[in-house]
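agent> Task received from the user: take the single chain below, predict its 3D structure, and emit structure tokens. No templates, no multimer pairing.
agent> Plan: (1) validate residues, (2) run structure prediction, (3) serialize to tokens, (4) report one or two observations.
agent> Step 1 OK, no nonstandard residues flagged.
tool_call: predict_structure(input=
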Amino acid sequence: MESQIKKAHQQLMFKKISCTGLVQEKLALLRQNTHNTVNSLLEETALALAKKVDTKIESGEEIGLLEGIPFGIKDVYMLQGTYTTASSDLLKKYKASYTASAIQKLLDAGAIPLVKENCDSFGHGSSSENTIFGAVKNAINPALAAGGSSGGSAVNVAKEYTVFSIGGDTGGSIRQPAGYNKVFGLKPTYGRISRYGLLAYASSTDCVGPIAKSIEDVE
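)
tool_result: status=success, residues=219
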């Protein structure tokens, strides 16, 4: 599988697509999807950021590799001002007061957050069925489990609703759903990426990591 990030980047740079158009396309797919991957959409934020990228391209400025690339966030990461529920009844109305370090780095690189993604509540599970938003359905066969706990993130990538997603892995919660949905997931070495702003399952083993359709995009 070719790099979806590089493909989108080149299309943006050569004006084959607009960033606003790309974001609108992905948001439409997320709204229509029947796989229970969405906890909340970040439409207003995403479109505002996309407009800035389009303005930059129109003015002849170069954009970074991740700039304008739509991504998903497992709903255990803080993103200031957005619902951060951990797919739990306890936090179903909680809005984050700050942004997780890993997510902030992506924002600083110009990536565009589209969606907070369904998962097992607080990461406790391996099927993405333990959630107040309804069980996530497998991308290949909706009758099967999506894996977990980052099931919504893996399915969104597999269905190309997001270009990549950020999951969380304690004992397989990125790698297992990635495998179930035939995409790629990485659990980095513990401590390699800051856990600040990640709702804890087991702080001594929780890791931030990506899910994507190619190894190059995971890298």
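agent> Step 4: summary for the user.
The beta strands are 38-41, 70-74, 112-117, 164-169, 184-185, 207-212.
agent> Done.
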